[in-house]
């Protein structure tokens, strides 16, 4: 199947889902997320697929939500585009977690905002040495979504997650590995080979046992995950109605520092 915003291909029993909006650093638009959800569904339904790799085209894995989609609504209904995009993002997160196959995030470059949420939802994460990460939401006057506030603290701990939410630093692959956000760091030119090697190892494994084990892990947090996705959706919509968000978005477009007022 041909998509506008992703490339779905594979090798042997491994499916590769490539986010394919390199000109926008694979930012998540409604069209992009619609294609991503469909691609993940096809992988889940294909009995010949035993492992899935999620990655990006170009120099970024995923920079987060496509802020450009929000520009026209800033003065009228600023939270409505957020409502629509988060609905699709939540479906994508659940599709990754409920897939009865291992999903590997091959982080090929920059990851920010919901890009980190997508990677965190995967079962394993491997990234290039040049990768850079940033939470990004709060610097726009918004709040994390896609279960970021559940999955990231589970991976790196409550204290580190608070640091990322409140201070919003850019951090590198070495820090991501030390903190536990990623499992492996590889040289940039080796990412696809390493990801395919890891996926091949999993695809040759006891995939039914993997599926049951993944289900068991999900059972321990699935109700919490679904509730958290809804809480974050609601919180994002509330944040999207604030003056701070409007100021943050305008500052982003104008490439200046925002002047937040807490309103």
Notable characteristics:
about 260 residues; alpha/beta; 2-enoyl-CoA Hydratase, Chain A, domain 1; six-stranded mixed sheet; four-stranded mixed sheet; 10 helices; about 15% strand
Q: Can you identify the CATH class?
A: Alpha Beta
CATH superfamily: 2-enoyl-CoA Hydratase, Chain A, domain 1
- The share of residues in helices is 40-55%
SSE arrangement, N to C: EEHEEHEEHEEHHEHEHHHH
Radius of gyration: 18 Å
- Count of all domains: 1
Low-confidence stretches: none
Form type: globular
Look up the CATH topology: 2-enoyl-CoA Hydratase, Chain A, domain 1
**Can you give the mean pLDDT?**
93
Looking at the overall shape, the CATH architecture is Alpha-Beta Complex
**Secondary structure tally, helices:** 10
Number of strands: 10
Task: Tell me about the largest β-sheet.
Answer: 6 strands, mixed
Question: In a few lines, what is going on in this structure?
Answer:
The chain is about 50% helix and about 15% strand. It is an alpha/beta fold and about 260 residues long.
């Amino acid at each position: 199947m041909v998509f506008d915003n992703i490339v779905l291909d594979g090798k042997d029993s491994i499916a590769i889902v490539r986010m394919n909006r390199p000109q926008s650093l694979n930012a998540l638009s409604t069209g992009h997320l619609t294609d991503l959800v469909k691609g993940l569904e096809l992988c889940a339904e294909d009995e010949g697929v035993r492992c899935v790799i999620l990655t990006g085209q170009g120099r970024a894995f995923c920079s987060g939500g496509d802020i450009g989609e929000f520009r026209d609504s800033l003065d009228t209904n600023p939270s409505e585009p957020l409502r629509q995009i988060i609905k699709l993002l939540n479906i994508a997160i659940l599709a990754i977690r409920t897939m009865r196959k291992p999903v590997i995030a091959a982080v090929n470059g920059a990851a920010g905002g919901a890009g980190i949420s997508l990677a965190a939802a995967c079962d394993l994460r491997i990234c290039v040495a040049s990768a850079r990460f940033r939470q990004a939401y709060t610097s726009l006057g918004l709040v994390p979504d896609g279960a970021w506030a559940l999955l990231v603290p589970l991976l790196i701990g409550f204290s580190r997650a608070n640091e990322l939410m409140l201070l919003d630093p850019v951090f590198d692959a070495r820090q991501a590995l030390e903190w536990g956000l990623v499992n492996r760091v590889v040289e940039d030119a080796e990412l696809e080979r390493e990801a395919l090697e890891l996926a091949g190892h999993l695809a040759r494994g006891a995939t039914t046992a993997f599926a049951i084990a993944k289900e068991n892990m999900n059972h321990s947090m699935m109700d919490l995950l679904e509730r958290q996705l809804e809480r974050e959706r609601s919180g994002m919509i509330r944040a999207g109605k604030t003056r701070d968000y409007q100021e943050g978005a305008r500052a982003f477009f104008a490439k200046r520092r925002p002047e937040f007022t807490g309103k």
